[in-house]
Structures are given as structure tokens and as C-alpha cells.
């Protein structure tokens, strides 16, 4: 049997080490916002045609959380939409709110959920980072930077 | 050995003689040839005859559609990028807006130009759009206006592919794998 190296470490140092490891292992939700947003990107279309916003929404918390809306200083109107295809016919539906259960992930991706960003207030170029605020059911407001991309952005 | 070579030879010969095998939905004989009277993105009255001589992909949509329409157009762009250049030049994508109220020729042109030179915007009045959509048995419709004057448009999400003589060949859907779309575009170009 191998000797346990821990036994050679003085007791106060050992306690400190264990405490440190315990903190490391704690759920990150205690330190971070419950809803994490990643891969935020914007599909930019020419002229005054609305843009689409895509991202991944992850609820790292222990309670359900709800996305109830979004706004941006760069757009006059931002809404949550969902594209639906039924019997070969596509349409968009307005989404009033979207609940992300604890530990769950929701993709805002082409052909499904997306932000519809209308009435651009200033010119936006491919590569620009545009701030959008996501409004959550618990009253939190989360600022997210979306990278503007070409019309073929997926 | 000789028998084996013979079998391969006969198979190849039969394949060459037979009908094309498509990987997306075969429409041959099921849909009428390409025909329409519409307005192009420069404001000119146009008919389908003017677009013969190249393979045509026909898609119904509208520009105030930031999700589905660009996704389909981007897929078609990605598929054509995988063809060799001469084949790519033989394909045009006709984007027919079923929302003429918002889509004047100028905004249509701005929209299709953003995807590439092979994308051409067309639209028309209700009678012309109804005639065309009925011809290919697709529907479109408008939702209620919201407080900002915005309204949704429902439209067919599939792409109708015609060979260079305007004969209906396949229906490409968003669910079709990219490899199948690329293979069928290649067959479509060779079909002419």
C-alpha cells in the first residue's frame, strides 16, 4: 500500500487545503448569475430589414428562471420569436415568455427561437458588438454583447 | 474476371440510360413547368421564359423574415459553394416575396444582393402571387398587425428546383441533409 502523503502535512495546512477544495467544488451558481448566455451573435440584414439574435441560454441555478423580454439602445423594438414549420408552411410566433428550468439549456438558433431586432437606430457593420439587455422574470437585467454577422450567419 | 467487368459495364450503361435518381423529393411529372408573370427587383415585368437556360431554385418568402428565409437562402448558398464554378454559374435562385406591401423592388434587391449575385428577387400583385402559389400548391397568409404595424407572413418553406428547360425536378426541404442537396443540384445542372 502506498503511504498517504496527506499524513505528513501539518493539520492546520490540511484543514486549509480541504476548505479550499470545498470552495472550489461549490456550485458556481452561488457566485455567478443564474442564467448564462453564450455564443451571442446577430444575423444582420440590409437596410431596415430586422436582424435576428441567436445565443445559448443556460440556467445554472437551482430554480427555474424566465426570459420575459429584451431591449437594446441600438434598436427601437426587440421581441422574442419562434419560427414554426407545420405541414411545409413556416411562420413566426411571438413568445411572451420562456421558462428555462434549473439545469436546462435553451438554444436560440436558426429555425427556432430568436430575437427579432427591429428599427435600427444607427448603422451597424459586420463585426460590431451590439449590447442587448435580456429581461428576466426575477427582475434581473442581463447585458449581453452580440457580435454582428453576415446574412448567412448560422 | 471478365464477367465482373461486364457486370460493372452493364450497370453503368443502365444507369446512364435510366432516369436520374434524386436524393430529395422527386417532383418529376408531379408539378407543372415553371411559369409566372411577376415584377423583378428592378421593377420590370418579367415572365418565367426569361429565366430559362439556367437551373432555377424557386423559393417563397418575404424580407421581414430574419430567421427562416435567410436560413434557407444561406443553405442554398452553402450548397452551391460546394459545386464547381461552372455548375454554380448555371444555378439561379428566384426569391419570390409574398409580401409585396413591404417588399418593393429596391428592398428586394438589397435583400437578395446580400446573399450573392445568383439570388434574384421577384414579387407581384395578389392575383399574380395567387396564380403562382396555386400552381405549385403552396399557401401564404398574413397575421394580424401589431401596434407597430408589423405583421407576420406565413409561407411555404420548401424550395422548388427546375432544370434549365423549366421542368419541375425536386422539392428541397430544410430537413434534407446538405450532401443530398449538393448531389441533387449537381444532377439538376447535368439534367439540362
Automatic annotation (TrEMBL), chain A:
Coiled coil start-end: none
Pfam families per UniProt: PCuAC
Top-level taxon of origin: Bacteria
SUPFAM superfamilies the record matches: DR1885-like metal-binding protein
PANTHER family from the UniProt entry: BLR7088 PROTEIN (PTHR36302), COPPER CHAPERONE PCU(A)C (PTHR36302:SF1)
Name recorded for this polypeptide: Copper chaperone PCu(A)C
Species classification: Bacteria, Pseudomonadati, Pseudomonadota, Gammaproteobacteria, Oceanospirillales
Automatic annotation (TrEMBL), chain B:
GO MF terms held by the record: metal ion binding
Cystine pairs: 65-69
Binding site for Cu cation: 65, 69, 155
Location of the Thioredoxin domain: 27-190
Keywords from the UniProt entry: Copper, Disulfide bond, Metal-binding
PROSITE patterns xref list: PROKAR_LIPOPROTEIN, THIOREDOXIN_2
Origin organism lineage: Bacteria, Pseudomonadati, Pseudomonadota, Gammaproteobacteria, Oceanospirillales
Organism of derivation: Vreelandella salicampi
Protein name according to UniProt: SCO family protein
The keyword Repeat is annotated on this UniProt entry: no
Entries under InterPro entries matching the protein: SCO1/SenC (IPR003782), Thioredoxin-like_sf (IPR036249), Thioredoxin_domain (IPR013766)
Family: Belongs to the SCO1/2 family.
Gene3D superfamilies, per the entry: Glutaredoxin (3.40.30.10)
Amino acid at each position: 500500500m502506498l503511504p498517504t502523503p496527506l499524513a505528513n502535512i501539518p493539520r492546520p495546512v490540511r484543514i486549509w487545503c480541504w476548505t479550499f477544495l470545498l470552495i472550489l467544488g461549490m456550485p458556481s451558481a452561488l457566485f455567478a448569475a443564474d442564467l448564462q448566455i453564450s455564443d451571442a451573435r446577430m444575423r444582420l440584414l440590409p437596410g431596415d430589414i430586422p436582424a435576428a439574435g441567436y445565443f445559448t441560454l443556460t440556467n445554472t441555478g437551482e430554480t427555474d428562471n424566465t426570459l420575459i423580454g429584451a431591449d437594446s439602445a441600438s434598436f427601437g423594438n426587440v421581441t422574442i420569436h419562434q419560427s414554426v414549420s407545420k405541414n411545409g408552411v413556416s411562420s413566426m410566433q411571438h413568445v411572451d415568455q420562456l421558462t428555462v428550468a434549473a439545469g436546462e439549456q435553451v438554444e436560440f438558433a436558426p429555425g427556432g427561437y430568436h430575437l427579432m431586432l427591429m428599427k435600427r437606430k444607427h448603422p451597424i457593420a459586420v463585426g460590431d458588438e451590439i449590447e442587448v439587455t435580456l429581461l428576466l422574470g426575477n427582475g434581473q437585467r442581463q447585458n449581453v454583447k452580440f457580435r454582428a454577422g453576415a446574412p448567412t450567419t448560422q | 474476371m471478365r464477367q465482373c467487368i461486364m457486370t460493372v459495364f452493364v450497370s453503368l450503361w443502365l444507369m446512364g440510360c435510366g432516369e436520374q435518381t434524386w436524393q430529395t423529393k422527386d417532383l418529376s411529372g408531379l408539378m407543372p413547368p415553371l411559369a409566372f408573370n411577376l415584377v423583378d427587383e428592378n421593377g420590370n415585368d418579367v415572365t418565367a421564359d426569361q429565366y430559362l437556360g439556367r437551373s432555377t431554385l424557386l423559393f417563397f418568402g418575404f424580407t421581414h423574415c430574419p430567421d427562416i428565409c435567410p436560413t434557407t437562402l444561406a443553405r442554398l448558398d452553402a450548397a452551391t459553394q460546394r459545386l464547381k464554378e461552372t455548375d454554380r454559374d448555371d444555378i439561379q435562385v428566384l426569391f419570390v416575396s409574398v409580401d409585396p406591401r413591404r417588399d418593393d423592388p429596391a428592398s428586394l434587391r438589397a435583400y437578395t444582393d446580400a446573399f450573392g449575385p445568383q439570388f434574384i428577387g421577384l414579387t407581384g400583385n395578389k392575383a399574380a402571387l395567387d396564380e403562382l402559389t396555386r400552381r405549385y400548391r403552396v399557401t401564404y397568409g398574413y397575421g394580424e398587425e401589431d401596434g407597430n404595424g408589423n405583421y407576420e407572413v406565413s409561407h411555404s418553406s420548401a424550395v422548388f428546383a427546375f432544370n434549365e428547360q423549366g421542368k419541375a425536378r425536386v422539392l428541397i426541404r430544410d430537413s434534407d441533409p446538405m450532401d443530398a442537396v449538393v448531389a441533387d443540384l449537381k444532377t439538376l445542372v447535368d439534367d439540362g
